[in-house]
């Protein structure tokens, strides 16, 4: 059982009377976020608890409940401090190669020192895995990488492709711990430079590399034995999922395995779509979530066989809570690296994401997909026992 946050107390601080007008003006999620980012509002204590309370009050309230509040808005002072700077405004066709580069750069090209203020030393920016005996974030991130690579039954000499490899942590782990030959791809120049620096520093250039390219531009001299994608799936977009799974299928040798780790929409009555709201404008432009059952259907239609599915949403809630605590502890360093505004955006975004996973609106799935060879064979044993030895 993964424990909830122990401390739920918070104080909402109003730094400007005009904040209340901004805060209560629909769309409330976006405008409340703008007020927080601008410093009109602040939170002392558990910011996730504040978000949870606001989410429930707004979404559970009827129009009759909200009418008196909306009527008061026009009587509140207007803000002269609020500006809409820093929000994403991308150009071009959505999910084209050029626009995807801009979207990834918007999110990932902050200084390495900013991410270092809340991530573990390996710089793993995805859901950790709190296995039995795991007590620290760093241990949980190593456990997550090993859990995924064991699912792939990765062995010495295997050629591994990591789609959306971040700063190269999983590429490095695959080489050091499992003896694989690994290639990672990212659209972030900052990530690629840092990943290559770490690979050189560890003396792994003969077995590992991080390339700056889109997975759609990758041309393999020979098929990969295993493919993994962690935290990149939500950037693809529903319309591009056939191309995404099709590209992975084409680059994988017959009998090989693909592990896809990504966020899915679990909110009642929804079947996914653009992330929207505060996160779309300030954090993940062009991000899209789908129901995971829909994604698996697309994977099957391009030829994959589904061999294993695991939902780790409680693990992601805990991971995000640890990131928020780290960010708050290292506030000075984070602001020095990326500025006050970025600190505020990420504190709010990560706390809100933790609330989404804890409440069950969001899921984080690991799917193991196989490409059967001509005789129907795949590289998986008869049971899962080997995963937990």
Mean pLDDT value: 88
Q: What is the strand arrangement across the widest sheet?
A: 5-4-3-6-7-11-10
The biggest beta sheet, please?
7 strands, mixed
User: Would you identify the CATH architecture of the largest domain?
Assistant: 3-Layer(aba) Sandwich
Distance between the termini: 20 Å
The string of secondary-structure elements, in order, is: EHHEHHHHHEHEHEEHEEHEHEHHHE
Description:
There is one protein chain. The chain has 15 helices and eleven strands. The chain has a seven-stranded mixed β-sheet. It is 43% helix and 18% strand. Mean pLDDT is 88; it is low at 1-6. It folds into two domains: 10-73, no CATH class; 97-388, Rossmann fold (3-Layer(aba) Sandwich). It is globular and about 70 Å long. The protein has helices spanning 19-24, 28-37, 47-60, 63-73, 97-108, 112-116, 137-151, 169-178, 189-201, 241-251, 277-282, 292-301, 313-329, 331-338, 340-359; strands at 10-14, 41-45, 159-163, 181-186, 208-212, 224-230, 252-265, 272-274, 288-290, 305-311, 362-370. The chain is α/β, with parallel strands linked by helices and 389 residues long. Helix 3 packs across helix 15, helix 13 runs antiparallel to helix 15 and helix 14 (331-338) packs across helix 15. Strand 3 (159-163), helix 8 (169-178) and strand 4 form a beta-alpha-beta unit.
Question: Secondary-structure blueprint of this entry?
Answer:
Blueprint: E1 10-14, H1 19-24, H2 28-37, E2 41-45, H3 47-60, H4 63-73, H5 97-108, H6 112-116, H7 137-151, E3 159-163, H8 169-178, E4 181-186, H9 189-201, E5 208-212, E6 224-230, H10 241-251, E7 252-265, E8 272-274, H11 277-282, E9 288-290, H12 292-301, E10 305-311, H13 313-329, H14 331-338, H15 340-359, E11 362-370
Parallel strand pairs: 3-4, 3-6, 4-5, 6-7
Antiparallel strand pairs: 1-2, 7-11, 8-9, 10-11
Helix pairs in contact: 3-15, 7-8, 10-12, 13-15, 14-15
């Amino acid at each position: 059982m993964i424990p909830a946050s122990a401390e739920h107390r918070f104080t909402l601080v109003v730094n400007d009377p005009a904040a209340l007008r901004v805060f209560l003006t629909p769309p409330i999620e976006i405008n409340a976020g703008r007020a927080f980012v601008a410093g009109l509002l602040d939170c002392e204590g558990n910011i996730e608890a504040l978000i949870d309370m606001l989410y429930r009050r707004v979404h559970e309230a009827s129009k009759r409940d909200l009418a008196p509040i909306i009527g008061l808005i026009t009587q509140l002072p207007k803000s002269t401090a609020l500006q809409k700077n820093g929000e994403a405004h991308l150009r071009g066709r959505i999910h084209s190669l050029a626009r995807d580069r801009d979207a990834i750069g918007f999110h990932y090209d902050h200084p390495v020192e900013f991410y270092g203020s809340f991530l573990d030393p390996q710089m793993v920016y995805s859901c950790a895995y709190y296995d039995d005996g795991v007590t620290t974030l760093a241990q949980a991130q190593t456990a997550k990488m090993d859990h995924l690579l064991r699912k792939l039954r990765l062995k010495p000499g295997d050629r591994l492709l990591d789609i959306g490899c971040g700063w190269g942590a999983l590429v490095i782990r695959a080489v050091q711990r499992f003896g694989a030959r690994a290639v990672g791809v990212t659209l972030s120049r900052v990530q690629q430079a840092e990943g290559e620096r770490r690979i050189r520093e560890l003396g792994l250039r003969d077995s590992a590399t991080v390339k700056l390219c889109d997975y759609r531009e990758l041309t393999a001299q020979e098929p990969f034995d295993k493919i993994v994608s962690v935290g990149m799936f939500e950037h693809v977009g529903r319309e591009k999922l056939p191309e995404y799974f099709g590209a992975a299928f084409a680059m994988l040798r017959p009998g090989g395995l693909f592990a896809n780790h990504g966020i899915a929409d679990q909110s009642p009555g929804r079947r996914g779509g653009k992330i929207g709201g505060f996160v779309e404008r300030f954090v993940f432009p062009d991000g899209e979530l789908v129901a995971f059952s829909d994604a698996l259907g697309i994977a099957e239609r391009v030829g994959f066989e589904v061999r294993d599915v695991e939902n780790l949403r409680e693990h992601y809630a805990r991971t995000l809570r640890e990131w928020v605590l780290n960010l708050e502890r290292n506030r000075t360093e984070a602001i020095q690296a990326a500025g006050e505004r970025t600190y505020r955006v990420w504190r709010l975004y990560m706390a809100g994401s933790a609330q989404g996973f804890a409440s069950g609106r969001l899921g984080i799935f690991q799917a193991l997909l196989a490409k059967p060879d001509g005789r129907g064979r795949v590289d998986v044993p008869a049971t899962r026992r080997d995963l937990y030895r």
